[in-house]
Each structure stands twice: as structure tokens, then as C-alpha cells.
From TrEMBL, chain A:
This is Superoxide dismutase. It comes from Aspergillus coremiiformis. It is found in: Mitochondrion matrix. Mn(2+) binds at residues 29, 77, 164, 168. Its main location: mitochondrion. The lineage of its organism: Eukaryota, Fungi, Dikarya, Ascomycota, Pezizomycotina. Its EC number is 1.15.1.1. Residues 100-197 form the Manganese/iron superoxide dismutase C-terminal domain. Keywords: Manganese, Metal-binding, Mitochondrion, Oxidoreductase, Transit peptide.
UniProtKB/TrEMBL annotation, chain B:
This is Superoxide dismutase. Destroys radicals which are normally produced within the cells and which are toxic to biological systems. One of its GO terms (cellular component) is mitochondrion. Its EC number is 1.15.1.1. It comes from Aspergillus coremiiformis. Residues 38-117 form the Manganese/iron superoxide dismutase N-terminal domain. The keyword Metal-binding applies. Residues 127-228 form the Manganese/iron superoxide dismutase C-terminal domain. It catalyses: 2 superoxide + 2 H(+) = H2O2 + O2. Its cofactor is Mn(2+). Belongs to the iron/manganese superoxide dismutase family. The keyword Isomerase does not apply. Mn(2+) binds at residues 61, 109, 195, 199. GO terms for molecular function: manganese ion binding; superoxide dismutase activity.
Length: 210, 230
């Protein structure tokens, strides 16, 4: 039996992101939604293993989208929890926590303010479920704001940080007012993790080993 | 359906005509004068689908979500009219995703409200006649059909809808899912739609979406579906 994946613990308490993200949202999001992606990923990988052994090519092909969706859900949420930090913690202060990334952001976007506005606009223009990401094309490289649909993961760039724009990420608290969620997320953004990924990629201290 | 989606008022027509006129061609102004999309009224109270869909969900879903699609569609169409007036093909093509998304959101929700009904207005009463026969022939039984539709709904990866559709070429019915707000257009005609966006159930069911898919059959307006089918 191949290895199976399990739910990574949150690096903070469920209520640590209050009042920006409620305890109830964090609990359901982590314990239910993220767990379901992992459960379905493990099931899809087990089915794939059987299909590969029996050379069932149509079945192998058929399983790829399930693996992409649920594997992406696992990867995205794992990255997301780590790039958030308790409201008011030192990690949320870009000046102290992310000097290199801040310099790069200012060089490319003019100011942090302009960057957050551009990032927010990308988040709010998503049509359906998806994610907004700040990505770089390598350690210390060029930055770009991208969105991915549903649970598509970022695979060809370094995901510096991501923001979940699925309705389950904010609806219990913000209802249809997703602009308020987008505005608030900066108060709980872990710039320390972002800096680390920007300089070292995700193979650095923010390891995501699947 | 078209009549309920686009309500032309004299005022709106005048406004649209007036805004297009200064751009030049009077003919163009006439051509592009059209009614703005408006939020259709529900034919039942927000609380009427309880306990299957809460009044709070219905109110937000209708007054906020649907209204946003209507507003954004009207904005996109205004921009489209400007682009057409300027003969700016690139701008027109750029607007396509917005028109599809917000126009689709308006069409889908309008159909959705109509294919729901409270119990005391026939909600949940099984279909009869030709539609009942078609469902039996295509799916084996109504229960089988509901199971398959629920499986389709549960399998949507992200936001979207599941529809019972009719093939305009063959007349046969089948199940299809659509991403985000993609509307049922072209070869297929929408008969019955169920909204699988999280905003359609999250306040009441959270991540237990299977419970929502099960409950919604109690308030399906099969009479409206029969009407679309015939």
C-alpha cells in the first residue's frame, strides 16, 4: 500500500485569525473541506495504483482530473494555512517580515498599496471558484499576480502566497460581501512565509512535501 | 422565458436610446436601444421553501447575488454597445467572458427560481404526462434520475450547475453539468436547473452539500419543468 496523505495541523489556533476569519470558518475549512480533498486524493491515488497494475489505460486517464482537483485542493490549502498568521503577529508586518519581497513588490508595482489593489482586483474578478496567487519565476525572481480556477494548483512558478476565493472561505462571515474579505486578508497575511518562499522557493523552510 | 428576462420599459428604452444618440448615427441609437435586464420577482416568499432552503439564503441569493449578475450584465452590455458603436472588435471580444458570466448568472437564476416552488404550491409533486414518461424511458425511474442528478451535482469541481436538458435535435432528455454561470444554450434547452454554487446552500448546510441536493427535491416545481418540456 502506497503512502497516504493526512491533514496537516494548522500552525495556529482556529480562532487565531479572528476577527478577520472566524473560528467557525477555519474549523469547517480545515477539518471538513481540506480533509475531504485529502480523502478523495487518497482514494483516487489508490484507484490509480490498481488501474496501473492492470494496465487499464482508460481508467488511468479517467482518474487524472480527480487527482488534479483533489491533489490541487490539498496543495493549495496546505500553502494557504502557512501563508496566514494571527492578526497582529509580527509575521503580518511586511516591513519587518519581508524586506526583500517588499523591495521587489515596490520595484514592480510602485508601492505595496498599488500591489494590494492590483491583487484585490484579480481576486474580485474571478468568475466562480478559484484562487489568487502572487507567484515568482524562481528564487528572488520576477513577480506576477495570477489566478487559478477551482483547485488548479500553481505548478510552473513559485507560489509566494495564495488567497482562497471559494465561497466556503468567507461566506459564513462575509456573505456576498467578498470585497470585505479581500480587504481584511492583508491583516492576517504571513509575510514571513511569503518572504521565505520568495527567496527559497517552496523547498525551503516552508516545505510542502506530498 | 425571454419575456421574463428582459423587461423593456419606456424609461429604459429612452435612456438607452439617449445615451447612444450622441455617439453619432441615429440609426445606431435605434438599433442599440434596448431594455435593461431587471431582477424578476419571486412568485413565493423568501421563507416559503423552508425548511429545505432557508429564508435567509433565498433573500441573499435573490436580492444580492442575482441582483449583482443583473447589474454587471447591464454594465457589460452598455460597454458592448459602446464597442459596437466604435466598431471596436477587440473590445467586443474582450467583453465576451463578462457577458457570458453575468448574462449566464441572470438566465440561470431566473430559470432556477421558476423551477422551485413551496410545498403548498406544488413543490415536490412528481412530474406527470409526457415528461414523466421521458424520465422513465431515459433514466428508469424518477428516483433513479434524482440519484443521477445528485451524483452529477456532487461531482462538480468548483462552482456550477446541473441541468436536465432537452436535445433540440433529437428531443431526448439528458443530464449535463455546466461550470460557473455557463448557461444552457445551443443544442440543448434547459428544463430543470439546480444551483451547486456554495452560496446556494452554505449558510444552512455548510460542507454537507449532499444534504442540500437531497432536500431540494422537496421544492422542485415539476409543473414548470413540464411546461418547458412541452
Amino acid at each position: 500500500m502506497a503512502n497516504t496523505f493526512s491533514l496537516p495541523p494548522l500552525p495556529y489556533a482556529y480562532d487565531a485569525l479572528e476577527p478577520i476569519i472566524s473560528k467557525q470558518i477555519m474549523e469547517i475549512h480545515h477539518q471538513k473541506h481540506h480533509q475531504t480533498y485529502i480523502t478523495n486524493l487518497n482514494a483516487a491515488l489508490a484507484a490509480q495504483s490498481v488501474a496501473l497494475t492492470s494496465n487499464n489505460i482508460p481508467q488511468v486517464i479517467n482518474l487524472q482530473q480527480k487527482i488534479k482537483f483533489n491533489g490541487g485542493g490539498h496543495i493549495n490549502h496546505s500553502l494557504f494555512w502557512k501563508n496566514l498568521a494571527p492578526n497582529g503577529s509580527p509575521e503580518t508586518n511586511i516591513d519587518h517580515a519581508a524586506p526583500s519581497l517588499k523591495t521587489a513588490i515596490e520595484a514592480q508595482y510602485g508601492s505595496v498599496q498599488k500591489f494590494t489593489e492590483a491583487f484585490g482586483a484579480v481576486l474580485l474578478s474571478l468568475q466562480g471558484s478559484g484562487w489568487g496567487w502572487l507567484v515568482s519565476n524562481g528564487p528572488g525572481g520576477k513577480l506576477e499576480i495570477v489566478s487559478t480556477k477551482d483547485q488548479d494548483p500553481v505548478t510552473d512558478k513559485v507560489p509566494v502566497f495564495g488567497v482562497d476565493m471559494w465561497e466556503h472561505a468567507y461566506y459564513l462571515q462575509y456573505l456576498n460581501n467578498k470585497a470585505s474579505y479581500v480587504e481584511g486578508i492583508w491583516k492576517v497575511l504571513n509575510w514571513q512565509t511569503a518572504e521565505d518562499r520568495y527567496l527559497n522557493g517552496v523547498e525551503g523552510s516552508a516545505v510542502l512535501k506530498l | 422565458m425571454a419575456a421574463s428576462l428582459i423587461r423593456t420599459t419606456t424609461r429604459a428604452a429612452l435612456r438607452a436610446g439617449a445615451s447612444a444618440t450622441p455617439k453619432g448615427a441615429g440609426v445606431a441609437g435605434l438599433t442599440f436601444a434596448r431594455g435593461k435586464a431587471t431582477l424578476p420577482d419571486l412568485s413565493y416568499d423568501y421563507g416559503a421553501l423552508e425548511p429545505h432552503i432557508s429564508g435567509k439564503i433565498m433573500e441573499l441569493h435573490h436580492k444580492n447575488h442575482h441582483q449583482t449578475y443583473v447589474n454587471s450584465y447591464n454594465t457589460a452590455v452598455e460597454q458592448l454597445q459602446e464597442a459596437v458603436a466604435k466598431e471596436d472588435i477587440t473590445a467586443q471580444i474582450n467583453l465576451k467572458p463578462l457577458i457570458n458570466f453575468h448574462g449566464g448568472g441572470h438566465v440561470n437564476h431566473t430559470l432556477f427560481w421558476e423551477n422551485l416552488a413551496p410545498k403548498n404550491q406544488g413543490g415536490g409533486e412528481p412530474p406527470s404526462g409526457a415528461l414523466a414518461k421521458a424520465i422513465e424511458n431515459s433514466f428508469g425511474s424518477l428516483t433513479e434520475f434524482q440519484n443521477k442528478m445528485n451524483t452529477a451535482l456532487a461531482g462538480i469541481q468548483g462552482s456550477g450547475w446541473a441541468w436536465l436538458v432537452k436535445d433540440k435535435q433529437t428531443g431526448s432528455i439528458s443530464l449535463k453539468t455546466y461550470a460557473n454561470q455557463d448557461p444552457v444554450i445551443g443544442q440543448f434547452q434547459p428544463l430543470l436547473g439546480i444551483d451547486a454554487w456554495e452560496h446556494a446552500y452554505y449558510l444552512q448546510y455548510q460542507n454537507r452539500k449532499a444534504e442540500y441536493f437531497k432536500a431540494i427535491w422537496e421544492v422542485i416545481n415539476w409543473k414548470a419543468v413540464e411546461k418547458r418540456f412541452s
